[in-house]
Known about the structure:
Blueprint lengths: L3 E10 L5 E9 L4 E5 L27 H15 L7 H11 L10 H18 L4 H9 L7 E8 L12 E5 L6 H21 L19 H14 L9 E5 L6 E2 L2 E4 L4 E4 H14 L2 E5 L7 H11 L4 E4 L7 H10 L4 E4 L1 H4 L2 H13 L3 E5 L9 H8 L3 E6 L4 H17 L12 H8 L1
Parallel strand pairs: 4-14, 6-10, 10-11, 11-12, 12-13, 13-14
Antiparallel strand pairs: 1-2, 2-3, 4-5, 5-6, 7-8, 8-9
Amino acid sequence: MTAISSVRGRRVWDSRGNPTVEVDVVLENGVLGRAIAPSGASRGTREAIDLRDGGDALRGKGVSRALSSVNGLISGTLQGMDVTDQAAVDRAILNLDSSPLKDALGGNATVATSMAVLHAAAAYAQKPLWRYVADHYGCTPSLPLPEIQIFGGGAHAGRRVDIQDFMIMVPGARNFDEVMEVTNEVYFAAGDIMASRGKLAGVADEGGWWPMFDSNEEALETLVAAIEKAGEKPGDRVVISLDIAASEFGQNGKYRLALEDRDMDSGALIDMLGGWLDAYPIASIEDPVGEDDKPGMIEFTRRFGDRVQIIGDDYLVTNAALVNEAVADSACNAVLIKVNQAGTVSESIDTFFAARMAGWGAVVSARSGETEDATISHLSTGLGGGQLKVGSFQRSERMVKWNECLRIQDELGAETFVGGNPMMATWWGSERG
Ligand code: PGA
Ligand code: ZN
């Protein structure tokens, strides 16, 4: 047993320039663990609360209340606890806040603390975090397949287009390095195309090109053109992944594509997306319908679940009970794992295992508001999670996660690259042979 001797929170600043919570956990022997809370812009209503001060200062986004949680109740409770018992630490945090969404302590306070404890335990064990995670949770570590954004949209781009993420995956790559190379080519090919059309206008929140498009589908067409311009055959080594983030433009089964001035019900949205699945090499799709549209998610999964990965993000909010419910409903076949949606490491890992038990895919994910914290690269690798979603291929809060995977690759071995999940086998199985 190695006891936690202090837990201290401080205010730092994220990739959007907003304040956020960093926590230092120090052990008796002086070993330090540190982590920073990320912050989402298109949040699910059932995820842990990102506690903000409100009021006029810092546009209401101050974190002094969350820091009070860390430096008061949480710190007092965790002092003296065994750092290697992550489950007990996280339970103790939960016992301080019985509200389902952690609105008393703040999910930003709890997630930074919980991840800092994990870092401290790994440092105490003198293991890199990915190795500690693999050993602690009994997993076989492997480098994940990235989902990388080429165009940002939705809440990350002032709603310039309705759809949120236009991404690529490179399941046909031989290793993580090759994914980075191909991504560089496709990312800059997309930028060149935008420039040649007079539509290059900077980047969105996660570093993807700003979506100067006249329709949502124009983004898809441009993405295919970029993949081709990069010398790749779309659907061959490189496939497309979309995050529709439909909760951002629909409620109660009614949706509105503002860019195209189109109103549609759930059935019409599903038909439209089905048309895209026929026309473009899309291997994965996230939140195709809203978080409140259970019949829509069941219908979408019934129609397309055997040919595409269907990820629940806002729909499942990294909650094991919701994953189990969706498994029973036959809704979705994969889950997005965002540690700050759950609020603690243990709850996130419970959700990961619920997905794994069901034979689902699991994509460990960043938020649109990020920092230099690269914990998720280690989590994804350590759990052998299969996939990692971090945003685009520009700006250091994104690149720090990809670069951390390259460092891990040097320690773990390039051959451990997963290259996909079971859902995607039909897309690329013959490629890798
Ligand atoms: P968010 O978006 O971090 O802004 O919530 C990410 C996502 O929807 O996957
Ligand atoms: Zn999402």
